[in-house]
Amino acid sequence: MKELNRGTWNIRLVLLVIFAMSLLCELPSVQARRASKSKKRANEKSPKLLVIMLDGWRWDYYDRQKDELPAFSKFLQEGVQAKWVEPVFPSISYPSWTTISTGVYPEVHGILSNYMFDQHLQAVFDYKNNTSVSMEHWWQNAEPIWITATRHGRKALLNRWSRCDVPFDGIKPETCVSYDDVVDGTGSTVDAFRIAVESLQQDYDLVMIYIETIDLIGHEYGPDSPELMEAVRHIDSALSFLLGDMQKVNIDDKVNTIIIGDHGMKALGESAKIVYLNDYINVCDIYKIVGKGPIMTIEPYAQTKVKVYQALQYQEGFDVYLREEIPEDFHYKNGKLVLELLIVAHPNYYLSGFDSDKQIPENLVNASDKIEGGIHGYPDNITEMRTIFYAKGPGFKNGLIHPPIKMVDLYQIFTYLLDIPSRPNNGSWARVSEMFSSARETVSNFWMVTFSICLINLV
Ligand SMILES: *[C@@H]1O[C@H](CO)[C@@H](O)[C@H](O)[C@H]1NC(C)=O
Ligand SMILES: *[C@@H]1O[C@H](CO)[C@@H](O)[C@H](O)[C@H]1NC(C)=O
Ligand SMILES: *[C@@H]1O[C@H](CO)[C@@H](O)[C@H](O)[C@H]1NC(C)=O
Ligand SMILES: *[C@@H]1O[C@H](CO)[C@@H](O)[C@H](O)[C@H]1NC(C)=O
Ligand SMILES: *[C@@H]1O[C@H](CO)[C@@H](O)[C@H](O)[C@H]1NC(C)=O
């Protein structure tokens, strides 16, 4: 009994000595590491960041066709592939782009769809009208990454990227070619990638390139069409040029490159059905009706709200919600410009524009009767709405298949890689932290050192 006690005591003593010595040994090296890190921050900036957005690139486009996509395959062997990215509601371009750039849900950044109506200002947001979407008042609720970067002395260049032309809090990025729907979106991807390589050779720290073609072809021919698959092969060969050019000018292992999409695409096809709201509601009962396709919103008059709502309930092909009934997990209902009624089409249904001048956009009479090959905008539990996150570079692990992330996670990934502070956002660090290489190195270095010290102490 006594012997045992003494033995335990000896072991404790040994452990205590080991612990004290490892602390002593560890201390200078931690300090040195901190010092070298802050010295690095003062002298050199973090690696440059290139972000490429492929509009409408569904989460499974690569996997189902990977044998034909050597550039993507090489990229992913050297980098990280998230299984998918969960989109936002509605999974439509402008709300998604704004979540990508700000890290907050549509109810927070306030861009609720491609069409909106502000009753207070009597203003229309129509993505096909450059003047309307460029009004500053739509855009001041959440800070985009290129503004956060500019605030911290990082030079940003954006090519056809959303509303980079609109100042936020009076600040603009160094260079911006803004998105314009009028410009033919099928313009050369190779040209856009050339701009990327040129800017990365100059003193830009953040380069963001937008490519529209996959979305346009997905809409026209559908996500399962040979046209779409051919367009995907074209992007792959453009990516091969990009990676080759980056290698030629010796920046390929110095730049963090991220490829993302903004939403997926669901086939509509011949069996799709058009919903005409004129069949259910009377134009006299509504003040404004906004949008078309997967979602619409309605502002009825106060005294007709219940009547309009009841007329739309339990009909085939769509759900209707009073504003207060909108599911919390849409992260939509608290938006400042949310109207009284939200209509969400079921998959394979398409909401036609209302035949009235109260409809935004106007003059849609019969225009949507031509069914598109594919659409998006449905709730985020429709798997076809998912999109991609692929990344490689000094900041990322190699050949990692990563669990799914959310679109709200992207902003914090950008700020982390640029080594600048994030604004408040809806991303989760726990959901993304394992994809980075430096985090792994720091942690494993620490344990290596501690472990070696323990070994030395034992000997
Ligand atoms: C769109 O409008 C903004 C703001 O008025 C302007 O800076 C930009 O040049 C316009 N874009 C096009 C293509 O007209
Ligand atoms: C575009 O939007 C502006 C600003 O809201 C508006 O004044 C103009 O009439 C719109 N143009 C068209 C063609 O609807
Ligand atoms: C729209 O289509 C309906 C049904 O096909 C037709 O009856 C109506 O006349 C059309 N309206 C216009 C303005 O073309
Ligand atoms: C998606 O979510 C909506 C709203 O919560 C629900 O009504 C619908 O049944 C869900 N669809 C699927 C396929 O889970
Ligand atoms: C999203 O982030 C904003 C800004 O920090 C915050 O106000 C909001 O409550 C967050 N929403 C959720 C659902 O966490």
Automatic annotation (TrEMBL):
Range of residues in the leader sequence: 1-32
GO molecular function, one term: hydrolase activity
Keyword Protein transport: no
Keywords for this protein: Signal
Signal is among the record's keywords: yes
CDD domains: Enpp (cd16018)
Protein name: Ectonucleotide pyrophosphatase/phosphodiesterase family member 6
Highest classification ranks of the organism: Eukaryota, Metazoa, Ecdysozoa, Arthropoda, Hexapoda
